[in-house]
Amino acid sequence: MAELEEVSSAKCFGGYQKIFKHKSAELGSEANFSVYIPPIFTQNETFPVLYWLSGLTCTEKNFIEKSGFQQYASQHKVVVVGPDTSPRGLNIEGEEDSWDFGTGAGYYVDAITEKWKNYRMYSYVTKELPTLVQQNFPVDPTRQSIFGHSMGGHGALICFLKNPGMFKSVSALAPIANMSMSPWGMRAFTAYLGPDKEAWKEYDATELVRKQAGKGGEIPEILIDQGTEDEWFKDGKAYLLPEHFVDAAKEAGVPVKLRMQEGYGHNYYFVSTFIRDHFEHHAKHLTK
Ligand SMILES: N[C@@H](CCC(=O)N[C@@H](CSC=O)C(=O)NCC(=O)O)C(=O)O
């Protein structure tokens, strides 16, 4: 069993907000992740688990320090796990040069180019981390869901759509919903996946939802919130493109609720405002 080292622990809403580190086999580097454990009243009790994926520049800390989610995790009795956003400290040439590429910008894909071969956040999030969590924390592996913000919203959507049955539900706040058409996505996919755009489709939420035609009845409603004053969305900015995802989902018969939130930006003020709704969305699937 992989060894976990506790980095920090703080009591919060009756439960504990913790950070752990370990040596990741997928990433070939040390990796940190956060875990919120709700109050435990019964011995051997297990909880559903909700995976949170963060956006560009984030570590495992942004969400736990800025969103205020712990009160809802405590109330709904859900374990919440949040990984870092890329491998770190690999000394790859150029990995520290940009805020939206390299370190802090793993985009939840498994890179196939030689230079970025350690950037395997997709396998880390869908395989290594859930295994670690199931081995070390009181979770029920049959009740898992996933959500995220921006790059992490993209990550949540693709992890859900690529793994039917693994997650009970998905939601996203201001996701990068069509990576192949987003300037962020085009740069990252070219570097991590190479120039063949067919390979990009495997990690593009809009392309993946398009492929769900005929399976709509099996997919629970996907919740997406988008701020109208989001600097990556307003005035025709084409970084997020939630409308492309909604159109493709509609064609495929997949239920999506896109809520346009008047006046909100791309920041954690927006995330913290709507995070309660996202817990309620997932609790309907996880706690019944
Ligand atoms: N250049 C800025 C902005 C970076 C930024 O806005 N990051 C967002 C995610 S964007 C898409 O994935 C974020 O979540 N930031 C963390 C936070 O705590 O606000 C910068 O370098 O900060």
TrEMBL record:
Active site residues according to the UniProt entry: S150, D230, H266
Keywords (A to Z) from UniProt: Cytoplasm, Hydrolase, Serine esterase
UniProt subcellular location: Cytoplasm
Superkingdom of origin: Eukaryota
Root EC class: hydrolase
Coiled coil: none
Pfam families: Esterase
GO molecular function: carboxylic ester hydrolase activity; S-formylglutathione hydrolase activity
Gene3D superfamilies (UniProt xref): alpha/beta hydrolase
Catalyses which reaction(s): S-formylglutathione + H2O = formate + glutathione + H(+)
Cellular component terms per the entry's GO annotation: cytosol
Keyword Hydrolase (UniProt): yes
Enzyme Commission no: 3.1.2.12
InterPro entries per UniProt: AB_hydrolase_fold, Esterase-like, S-formylglutathione_hydrol
Family stated for the protein in its record: Belongs to the esterase D family.
Name recorded for this polypeptide: S-formylglutathione hydrolase
Species this protein is from: Ramazzottius varieornatus
Gene encoding the protein: RvY_02514-1
